[in-house]
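We were asked to recover a plausible sequence for a given structure. The inputs and outputs are reproduced exactly as logged, with field labels preserved.

PROBLEM: sequence recovery
POSITIONS: 262
GIVEN STRUCTURE:
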């Protein structure tokens, strides 16, 4: 995420917000405090203290049987209030479904949230072998999954430079193929091609391609993507999948821009 402005209490708010995002990503399965603390880079006691405070406000809940932490009722109410401004899933659902039907691969809609992408929709195609790297609620840094690669590619150069300066640890976390030089090469290829390709860089043998979707100001705020096993993304078929993906991304861009202008 982009750095928080230095104001009193900002560190505690940032830590609580990070825990909220991690709990939300766990969905109905829930997540244990030890796992949440590790992912948030907090001590177990600090994570538990913050989670308890969030529970008192109704933002998270805890399963009495498993002790796992879950999204709370206040998150639902907040989400419902914000949906009219930010939610585009009602505009995208049939397009994502069409993409899955036509390609027979798993199709997704992701949204940019700060320095990450969050998967909003998943539709599985008819091909029986699937990749499960991405599902609803899963987050990736920009430039890692194909959706984030597509979005990052069409941001202004200054924004890309600032992002890479904020995240010098991408290679350490995601492998050497995500160092600044390699990532800039993929960004250039994505701009030329129109869509980004992830050739099994997150999970070996699991490929993905992504295309940016733009808001009414021309900013890449969402992405459509496809994932599947490597042999389904050979050179000849990759070009065909890319054309289909770009056509659907253009359709969704037009739909969003028209809806936001009304």
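RECOVERED SEQUENCE:
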């Amino acid at each position: 995420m982009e750095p928080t402005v230095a104001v009193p209490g900002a560190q505690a708010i940032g830590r609580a917000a990070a825990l909220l995002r991690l709990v939300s990503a766990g969905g109905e399965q829930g997540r244990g405090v030890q796992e949440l603390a590790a992912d948030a880079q907090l001590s177990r006691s600090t994570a538990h203290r913050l989670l308890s405070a969030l529970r008192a406000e109704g933002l998270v809940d805890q399963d009495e049987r498993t002790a796992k932490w879950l999204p709370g009722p206040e998150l639902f109410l907040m989400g419902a209030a914000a949906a009219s401004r930010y939610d585009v899933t009602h505009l995208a659902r049939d397009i994502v479904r069409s993409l899955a039907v036509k390609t027979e691969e798993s199709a997704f809609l992701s949204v940019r949230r700060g320095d990450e992408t969050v998967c909003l929709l998943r539709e599985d195609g008819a091909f029986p072998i699937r990749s499960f790297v991405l599902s609803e609620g899963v987050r990736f840094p920009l430039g890692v999954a194909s959706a984030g690669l597509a979005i990052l590619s069409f941001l202004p150069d200054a924004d890309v430079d600032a992002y890479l300066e904020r995240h010098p640890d991408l290679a350490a976390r995601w492998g050497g193929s995500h160092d600044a030089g390699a990532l800039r090469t993929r960004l250039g290829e994505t701009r030329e091609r129109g869509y980004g390709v992830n050739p099994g860089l997150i999970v070996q043998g699991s490929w993905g391609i992504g295309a940016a979707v733009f808001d009414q100001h021309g900013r890449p705020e969402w992405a459509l993507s496809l994932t599947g096993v490597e042999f389904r993304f050979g050179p000849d078929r990759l070009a065909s999948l890319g054309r289909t993906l770009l056509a659907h991304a253009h359709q969704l861009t037009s739909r969003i821009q028209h809806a936001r202008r009304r």
